[in-house]
Amino acid sequence: MKRDELRKLKDKTVPELQKDLTAAREELRVLKFDLTAGKAKNIRTITETKKRIARIMTFLRQAQDGERSRTIIAEKSKTNNNG
Fold it and tell me: Which GO terms describe its cellular component (predicted)?
């Protein structure tokens, strides 16, 4: 995966990442079906798709953790200002 593609993934929002994840999983399903049917010529695409899914899941997790930590920090600062 090229650096440009990684940057694009990093800049995406959570809903965009979820949409990409769904599309990648569907692509993997089709590739596996084609492999069992004997239509697949390049088996490497399955491995690349699995890796892309893992990367998307990693960025998705990082984005969700970032939102969670921002919420916790905001709640703590709100509590400290009140007391």
Answer: ribonucleoprotein complex; ribosome
Residue 55: count other Cβ atoms within 10 Å of its Cβ.
18
Looking at residue 83, its pLDDT comes to 58
Helices 3-11, 44-82: inter-axial angle, 10-degree rounding = 40
- Tell me if 53 sits within 8 A of 28, measured CB to CB: yes
**pLDDT at 1 > cutoff 70:** no
13 phi and psi angles, rounded to 5 deg: -85, 170
**Quick check: pTM over 0.85?**
no
